[in-house]
Specification:
Blueprint (H helix, E strand, L loop, with lengths): L17 H17 L4 H25 L14 H10 L9 E6 L4 E2 H14 L3 E6 L5 E4 L3 E3 L2 E2 H7 L6 E4 L8 H12 L3 E4 L3 H7 L7 E2 L6 H7 L4 E2 L5 E4 L2 E4 L5 H13 L1 H11 L17 H12 L5 E6 L6 H11 L5 E6 L6 E2 L5 E2 L22 H16 L1 H10 L9
Helix pairs in contact: 1-2, 3-9, 4-9, 4-12, 9-10, 11-14, 12-13, 13-14
């Protein structure tokens, strides 16, 4: 991508690229099996690789900034805000068809569930969740859901395509079926929305060439490398260029969805939605410099990963009618600590239907969860309150730095996040 300032430390992770280290270790192992090296040479070589990797890691960490260079989100001029809303007006139908699509074996939790929950409660269109295969969809890093339909069945029902296609982050950016279908929907006139790192999928479909765009801060360099003609727009959590929309990190799904509601049904409807979410502002302003890899972030993640003996599975009890947006945010947050994983369970058998008709598949059947590892019920909390409460609880359980690591991953403007 063009027009992003070069920051030298961004490129230092290449010094300790884990794939290169792993390849070296595998080569040594192969040498042992084939008898190519003597044991002493293997030990020396293995030790050398370990020391080299450690030295590279230390150098990389030392070059990381101690804190983000946050400068405050710049104001959005009224003309720009109005242009964003105008560009997102329904392209064809007065009551638009909005699809949220993902691959069945790995689609980001909040990217997928938040737009569905927000748009359905606002009742601004036909909101349909789609998978590429029949059966459940495993969300990452937590939850399993049953999509409404498959893309094949959708194409039969809507041969003219959707009005909007929301593309979350997927575990594979290059899934052939996904790329083909997204391109076909764009060709039929749909507005394609790359939610968070879903921008990488949209880019892989060939839709970012020459376009203004953004994405999750962690994947920005990768996106720039893969799509050098795309033009990065900093300090905006929502970028619209023609029929392609991209957003910043995970929690940008909330302002993106509210902006879409405003474009479809007007400002009052969006304001009502924001009050229900307890989300104060949903314009495009964003402080991009506040979200970056820092030394405390790297050291906290490393420490939590190395403490492999100190892992927890924390239970979330599912109940019919619970708020799927609050559930997604809480499960997502607790599964990003590198210390814990959120696991759902239900007292009844079968799927649990959320407030806005999303079928959630429990990870476990009827169980009695230990009270000290049971997360408080959040399904009736306002989504913003649920996320703030989860971050506060993570801080109380694991410390402020781990809570800040989670907020940074979610690209959530938590105060003092590092």
């Amino acid at each position: 991508m063009k027009d992003e300032p070069t920051v030298p430390w961004q490129f230092l992770p290449d010094l300790c690229h884990f794939g290169q280290r792993l390849a070296a270790v595998r080569w040594v192992s192969g040498a042992i099996d084939g008898g190519v090296m003597k044991r002493g040479m293997v030990l020396k070589g293995g030790l050398g690789l370990v020391l080299l990797g450690l030295a590279g890691f230390i150098a990389w960490v030392l070059f990381l900034p101690a804190a983000p260079a946050a400068s405050g989100a710049p104001a959005i001029e009224s003309r720009e805000a109005e242009a964003i809303v105008a560009a997102l007006k329904p392209p064809r139908r007065e009551r638009p068809v909005i699809t949220v699509v993902g691959i069945n074996d790995g689609t980001e939790t909040t990217d997928f569930l938040m737009p569905v929950g927000i748009l359905r409660r606002a009742n601004v269109g036909h909101v349909i969740t789609l998978g590429f295969d029949p059966g459940p969809m495993t969300l990452d890093p937590a939850l399993t859901v049953e999509p409404d339909s498959t893309v094949a069945a959708f194409d039969v029902r809507y041969p003219d395509g959707a009005d909007y296609v929301i593309v979350p982050r997927m575990s594979r950016d290059d899934d052939p079926a996904a790329l083909t279908w997204i391109r076909s929907q764009a060709g039929k006139g749909a507005t394609i929305i790359g939610d968070c790192a879903g921008a990488k999928v949209v880019g892989a479909a060939g839709l970012l060439d020459g376009k203004r765009a953004t994405t999750h801060w962690f994947f920005l360099r990768q996106l720039r490398r893969r799509h050098p003609t795309a033009i990065y727009v900093p300090d905006r959590r929502l970028v619209v260029d023609g029929n392609v929309v991209t957003t910043t990190g995970i929690t940008a799904s909330m302002p993106m969805s509210l902006t879409l509601i405003e474009a479809i049904a007007g400002r009052p409807r969006a304001e009502a939605g924001a009050r229900e979410l307890r989300f104060a502002s949903w314009d495009a302003r964003h402080d991009s410099r506040a979200f970056t890899l820092t030394r405390p972030f790297a050291l906290t993640v490393l420490g939590n990963v190395l403490a492999f003996w100190n892992r927890e599975e924390l239970g979330i009890e599912l109940s019919h009618g619970m708020d799927e947006v609050s559930l997604a945010l809480v499960a997502d947050a607790w599964s990003r600590t590198y210390r814990s994983r959120a696991v759902t369970f239900a007292r009844n058998t079968g799927d649990i239907e959320s407030r806005n008709r999303i079928r959630i598949v429990p990870d476990r059947g009827s169980v009695s969860w230990p009270p000290d590892r049971l997360l408080p019920a959040s399904g009736n909390l306002k989504p913003a309150d649920a996320l703030d409460g989860a971050l506060a609880a993570i801080e109380a359980r694991y410390g402020r730095r781990t809570a800040n690591v989670v907020a940074m991953q979610l690209e959530y403007p938590k105060q003092d996040a590092r």
